[in-house]
Design a protein that fits this description.
CATH superfamily: Periplasmic binding protein-like II
Order of helices and strands: HEHEHHEHEE
Number of strands: 5
Number of helices: 5
Radius of gyration: 17 Å
Strand order of the largest sheet: 3-2-4-1-5
Shape: globular
Distance between the termini: 35 Å
Number of domains: 1
Structural class: alpha/beta
Oligomer: single chain
Strand content: 15-25%
Helix content: 40-55%
CATH architecture: 3-Layer(aba) Sandwich
CATH class: Alpha Beta
């Protein structure tokens, strides 16, 4: 019985360990983007914001934030997404988002580029960027 209680307690702690993911854009960008459009942007199926401006998505490389974003928003595991992009690259039908190493790198990139969209741990949001969705 003690083992069952311990396992249950650890499971609950691990569920709460996942942070919310904030999708961010440059503060000067006036576009709104819904969940479906965010998914399409990160799958290369949409290349512009609602007003027609080009979108420049950035991804994170091998972080837990990236894994959670891929699961919650894109609906694919990291390995499934890598296979998806490999096929598109091989056939010449797409180019994956640029990969950055950390939340701070994504914040800096988005803050410096009006057409950028990225995602970070919601606890890392600063006034340099604007949050358009949280997952």
């Amino acid at each position: 019985m003690k083992k069952l209680i311990l396992v249950s307690a650890l499971s609950l702690c691990s569920i709460n360990a996942f942070a919310d993911i904030a999708v961010i854009i440059n503060p000067s960008n006036i576009n709104t983007v819904d969940t479906d459009t965010i998914k399409k942007i990160y799958l290369g199926k949409s290349k512009s914001f609602s007003n027609g401006d080009k979108v420049n998505p950035v991804d994170q490389d091998g972080t837990s934030v990236a894994d959670e974003f891929n699961d919650k928003v894109v609906g694919k595991s990291s390995s499934q997404l890598n296979a998806y992009w490999s096929k598109l690259i091989f056939t010449g039908k797409g180019t994956p988002p640029e990969k950055l190493a950390s939340d701070q790198a994504v914040i800096d990139f988005v803050a410096a580029n009006n057409d950028a969209i990225g995602y970070i741990d919601s606890a890392k949001v600063s006034d340099k960027v604007k949050v358009i969705a949280t997952f």
